[in-house]
Amino acid sequence: MTFLAVVSVIAGIMFGVGAIAAVYRIIRGPSILDRALATDVLLAIAICGLGAEMAINKHIDTLVVMLVLAMFAVVGSISIARFMAKEDAS
To answer: Which of 77, 74, 69, 72 minimizes the C-alpha distance to 33?
Structure first.
């Protein structure tokens, strides 16, 4: 087994554990802000996983998918922040 294969397996395990922890926080989060943060973390893990896969396989085919996921993360965070600001003002 090459060094790159070992590093790939270790990175995959770390991404998997992080994703499981984020999904747990989405399900069990006591507030909407905890759930929003966990969703951002899950999207960041997905983006990092796609980036790692691109680096390992030496291609840029999924770059557009990464950019769309980043756009969803930003728009979602802004939407939740605006929603919470309206709730606090009431």
So the answer is: 77
Domain that holds residue 78: 3-89
Residuewise pLDDT in 10s, the chain (90 residues): 899 999 999 999 999 999 999 999 999 989 888 999 999 999 999 999 999 999 999 999 999 999 999 999 999 999 988 888 887 776
CB count within 10 Å of CB 22 equals 21
Task: Quote the pTM value.
Answer: 0.88
What's the number of domains the chain is made of?
Answer: 1
CATH of the domain at 8: 1.10.287
